[in-house]
Design brief:
Length: 364
């Protein structure tokens, strides 16, 4: 079963490392307790393609004696189109930050009843505070917060030390042709903006174009390509030595190559990097409101959240108590990832500037 997925935001397509699963089918098990009459016995969930372990879903299904109708989507655009069309029947969806903002403004979500969520206390407030469209979590509860990192093969890059842990690592011409960056405008331009001391959500055209010039003039000449698909295999084969990517994909491709894993250093640049946030949202026409709240609260039990993160190799960024319960060592400490990253979200009409910078200049 695929354990790792590659993140994508509003302007990219989420790619799976090996395959896309169409659905998860659950077998029968003896329940631990019957559901209350107010929750009903079904919950309709619409989540990213493989983004929740079977073990977690099974535990919820058994404890609440509930049938989970669990469908999956490959992009925010697919999810949004289906929900916007109406009549989907789903209770919970998992949009990324930019789409959460859009869908909240369009009135597509029911209000979250905090009195039903005893585990909200476990959530890192530093993450919630970045959700400027909904800082009080009226319409969402954070599911996962992550970031692309830079992976370095220190066997091949023998001079590597902590002074290299900056975005200007891509200016090192001696490794020309051995480096890749994500094929993602908000990730790459966001990194360039942060390296210049700006926000990854800049709307000022002059600052965005300064980031464009940095990528075009100093980073791109040293890259093999911009790549959101084959970077994991390329790194595992040692064709690429310095890779900007989501480490989950690299880790999956490395597999049991202990030597390469031992020689791999993963870091967020000193200047910080763009982060993504996916949330759990209850749709305004949801039929199983109480059970939807139970599911959200269940996910944020520390032991359940630790199980979710361990399965994917994630740091437990959103749920603070879960960090001490993880059995697998994540690729970065959760505290470091949260402290050094900044959420990117919808930039409105400024997206035209980003697109022009990316497609008319960088990707031409």
């Amino acid at each position: 079963m695929v354990k790792y997925l590659l993140r994508a935001g509003k302007f990219t397509v989420r790619m799976m490392v090996f395959a896309v699963f169409a659905a998860i089918v659950f077998g029968g098990c003896s329940p631990k307790k019957a559901p209350s009459a107010s929750t009903g016995n079904k919950l309709y969930i619409y989540n990213w393609t493989y983004y929740c372990p079977d073990s977690v879903l099974d535990k919820f299904r058994m404890e609440y004696n509930v049938e989970l109708i669990y469908d999956q989507y490959a992009s925010n655009e697919d999810m949004y189109a289906k929900i916007q069309a109406g009549g989907s029947g789903y209770d919970i969806v998992f949009p990324s930050a930019d789409f959460m903002e859009i869908m909240t403004k369009q009135g597509m979500f029911a209000k979250i009843d905090h009195s039903k969520l005893s585990n909200l206390k476990n959530i890192d407030i530093n993450i919630v505070n970045q959700a400027l469209w909904d800082p009080d979590m009226e319409y969402f509860v954070p599911y996962y917060y992550g970031a692309a990192t830079i992976s370095v093969n220190t066997k091949r890059v023998s001079k590597f030390d902590d002074s290299w842990k900056k975005w200007n690592i891509f200016e090192r011409a001696e490794y020309q042709g051995k480096m890749t960056m994500l094929d993602d405008s908000r990730q790459v331009l966001g990194g360039a903006l942060m390296s210049l001391g700006y926000s990854p959500n800049e709307t000022d055209a002059e600052k965005i174009n300064k980031a464009r010039d940095l990528v075009e003039g100093k980073w791109k000449p040293n890259l093999t390509r911009f790549d959101s698909e084959a970077f994991g295999k390329g790194y595992a084969n040692e064709d690429f030595w310095i890779v900007h990517a989501f480490f989950e994909g690299i880790r999956e491709e490395i597999g049991d190559n202990a030597e390469l894993l031992e020689n791999t250093v993963v870091f967020l640049p000193e200047e910080g990097g763009p982060a993504y946030l996916d949330g759990m949202c209850i749709l305004k026409d949801a039929k199983h409101i109480d059970l939807a709240h139970e599911f959200i609260n269940f996910i944020h039990r520390p032991e359940i959240y630790a199980e979710f993160c361990d399965y994917f190799g994630f740091p437990a960024t959103v749920n603070i108590p879960a960090r001490s319960l993880q059995k697998e060592e994540p690729f970065l400490p959760a505290e470091e990832l949260v402290a050094k990253s900044k959420l990117y979200f919808d930039v409105g009409e400024a997206i035209d500037v980003y697109n022009a910078a990316w497609f008319d200049t960088i990707r031409r």
